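Handout, section 3.2

Students often ask what a structure token actually looks like in practice. Rather than define it abstractly, here is a full record for Beta-ketoacyl-[acyl-carrier-protein] synthase III. The first block is the sequence as you would receive it.
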Amino acid sequence: MTVTPKNLAGPLAAPPAASARITGIGGYRPRRVVPNSEIVERIDSSDEWIRERSGIIERRWAGEGESVIDMSELATTPALEMAGIEAAQLDAILVATVSWPYQTPAAAPMLAERLGSKAAALDISAACAGYCHGITMANDMVRAGTAEHVLVVGVERLSDFTSRDDRGTAFIFADGAGAAVVSRSEVQGIGPTVWGSDGAQWEAISQTESWIDVHQKNLGWPHIGMAGQTVFRWAVWGMAPVAQKALDAAGVTADQLDAFVPHQANVRIIDAMAKQLKLPADIPIARDIAYTGNTSAASVPLAMERMVREGEIPRGGLALQIGFGAGLSYAAQVVTIP
Ligand SMILES: CC(C)(COP(=O)(O)OP(=O)(O)OC[C@H]1O[C@@H](n2cnc3c(N)ncnc32)[C@H](O)[C@@H]1OP(=O)(O)O)[C@@H](O)C(=O)NCCC(=O)NCCS
């Protein structure tokens, strides 16, 4: 028997296509400053080694009153203010994080409640690329008419999932939150995204044991482990071409940029990417890692927030941003600076 659909009439009602841009950005850095000197003993390292190999001078670790939700709220408030909207006007909230300590529900609905919003709310798990994935999704939601205002938060409390004794990660990972509001606008201010994944390298950065093993084998608290050299090579050789493709897709040349805001993984990776992209010497490059460490999903919005706040980059100019990390996963796009 063949069944036929009742309605062969054609397309469903759809809102008209719109344009989108980032209209507000905010950040929150935890109060506790942790210099290299506080870390070196347990990993048999030195301040000089950490500075030279990673560019990190100090980082922030969250304490009491600085949960994933607390930090997200504190980053969101200035972002909403800059965007000129109230939380109640948000249609969707996307929280990019890998350090929310509940399997379910997601962090986003709790953040929504804290903000006084009833928006659609969900988390994104794409590690250090999570924020740029969120900007992609927010852009598409606004362009398709599903939302008028979307909040994208990148937030981490990686100090909860970092072993103080792991030489490969103890000095890198840190805590913080960055937030952006993506809104309908007259002019398109978010370029096409270039994104992808390489699951063959799934284990290069990962939680050391699954929750099932932790429970059944009584393994104790897991942490995030990393094959440093593997990740370093992938980032240096693989991510500059991705960033170049994002420039090409947006129809922008390197000399037209007002900022380069890559994920703050390691200052040597940032420098190598800038060199491969042949960025002119006068283009500001985010090096927030020196005083913030690697805050995974929070790193790109935190770096941009600092550059905007300190007047280093012009509002309305063009920034190339790229996130990359565990998965392995990546996403890059050119955006108009809010
Ligand atoms: C982690 C990282 C800084 C380590 O640097 P590296 O040069 O690859 O270090 P290696 O593991 O090859 O070790 C080099 C030497 O430093 C030593 N070393 C490793 N970790 C050390 C530490 N924390 N302190 C001091 N010495 C250390 C090693 O013992 C080795 O010594 P040897 O040459 O005498 O054998 C680097 O691999 C890196 O930045 N990777 C990318 C990490 C990253 O960006 N992750 C985030 C992506 S989202």
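Discussion prompt for tutorial groups: Residues 241 and 247 are 10 Å apart (CA to CA). How would you have guessed this from the sequence alone?
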